[in-house]
Amino acid sequence: MATAASARVYNNFIGGEWVDSKSGKTYENRNPANTDEVIGHFVASNEADVNAAVDAAKEAYKSWRLVPAPKRAEILYRAAEILVQRKEEYSKDMTREMGKVLAETRGDVQEAIDMTYYMAGEGRRLFGQTTPSELPNKFAMSVRQSVGVCGLITPWNFPMAIPSWKMAPALVAGNTVVLKPAEDTPLSSYHYVQALVEAGLPKGVVNIVSGDGPDAGAPLSKHKDVPVMSFTGSSAVGRIIASACAPDFKHVSLEMGGKNIIIVMDDANLDLAIDGAVWGGFGTTGQRCTAASRVAVHKKVYGEFVKRFVERVKTLRVGDGLDPKIEMGPCINEQQLNTVMSYVEIGKKENAKLLTGGNRLNSGAHAKGWFHEPTVFGDVDAKMRVAQEEIFGPVVSVIPFDGFDEAISIANGVAYGLSASIYTKNVNQAFAAMRDLYTGIVYVNAPTIGAETHMPFGGTKQTGNGHREAAGAAIDFFTEWKTLYIDYSDKLQRAQIDNN
Ligand code: ADP
């Protein structure tokens, strides 16, 4: 186990070189399950570092945009192969820096692999449209063009998957990138970049600057030579980034909070619904933007559901995610743990019924980490703060309801709109829910988590600003349409005039 003295220093990657910060400052990245362990020292970047990275990306863009897309894609394909080889090593490193259990960090690296293969495939697609012109002897088509340097700012809960969601489509489309990873999980982003570099990515095409939001993220979002910003994180920071991008009319994609719901109807398979609620609520210690932090249950089955759900939650084993017996890891850091504890107090004050959990775990095997008990509130009113605000931790609010319409109105009655799910065997109800749940993602008979890389990902209302990540939707964001008209009539032809 590395200590502060023995841990390695990780530099920024700018213009194809691993370089120090111009500030000379570094910060420690510690294991949230055991804060004695230092994962590494990372550069605390400042505006000068960001400027150097953007300059390198701008220079590299001149030639990268001209590399044929299938050739760009071959590099992504090779990077995915490298990730496959290193999946176990990178997953373990991710558990050490982020805390989630090994099965989940393997899933995170796999998601990066899937996304990288998917976008490698896009290198031979990147389809546009050809369509007949309204005039004779004239040809019309639209092609995608790259945009330039993309600034990418990512959160800590999916330390490799989310950077890959942004980097792979940006790169295959011919853009160059500067990534500012979350300060708590830079190592997994380094691993992804390392795979791209070894796969043969030219100098300057990918750059990484570590550091905190205000010092390293803010200068990137404001930089005049960065026409595209893609951000995943809190709605509060998303608003700051959107404002920073507005004066230059940058393309900006924001993926933010959620207050996702599982609806359990009275005809649901309760075993299945309980499995889903446990995984949706406590997977990743509830620290997913798609976490099921609300479970609304029909009053006819409420008593039975709550009894069995709470029994299951009580058995969850909390601890170091590297231990295969452990089912839930720590919170990412002290601040997040404090947020969780403060919401437990808020719930109690609101008279939500604390059914299990509610305490920090900080003795014995938990003494050195940011652990919290899996916590369930029952008899929650949909308007309570614990049922309205994103907690981003292992706290689930169970809300009783009377009928389908009430369930839909509870589901839609929050500021966010990322993911929702319904458990029912009634096909009419399932389709009505698919139509009426105003979220970017709806699941039927499955929990709110489990996005696949070839489907659009994102949400409505305060969750996003209308863009989607993953799938072809990501290509739409990282490219711009160019419409081409080729007139081979040898005469002036006026659209809308000469053909009417
Ligand atoms: P989370 O709650 O997931 O940590 P944040 O929104 O705080 O979400 O952070 C997400 C990312 O945004 C991180 O990489 C963080 O460093 C960055 N960030 C935070 N503040 C700013 C800011 N003012 N400008 C740009 N990036 C920021």
Explain how this protein is built.
The structure is a single chain. By secondary structure, the protein is of the alpha/beta class. The protein folds into two domains: 268 residues, Aldehyde Dehydrogenase, Chain A, domain 1; 184 residues, Aldehyde Dehydrogenase, Chain A, domain 2, CATH 3.40.309.10. Helices cover 37% and strands 22% of the residues. The strands form seven sheets. A seven-stranded mixed sheet has the order 15-18-19-14-13-21-22, sandwiched between helices. The chain has a five-stranded parallel sheet with strand order 10-9-8-11-12, with helices on both faces. Strands 1-5-4 form a three-stranded mixed sheet, with helices on one face. Helix 8 links the parallel strand 13 and strand 14. Helix 1 crosses helix 6 and helix 2 runs antiparallel to helix 5. The model has no long low-confidence stretch (mean pLDDT 97).
Number of domains: 2
Bound molecules: adenosine-5'-diphosphate
CATH fold name of the largest domain, please? Aldehyde Dehydrogenase, Chain A, domain 1
End-to-end Cα distance: 78 Å
Shape: globular
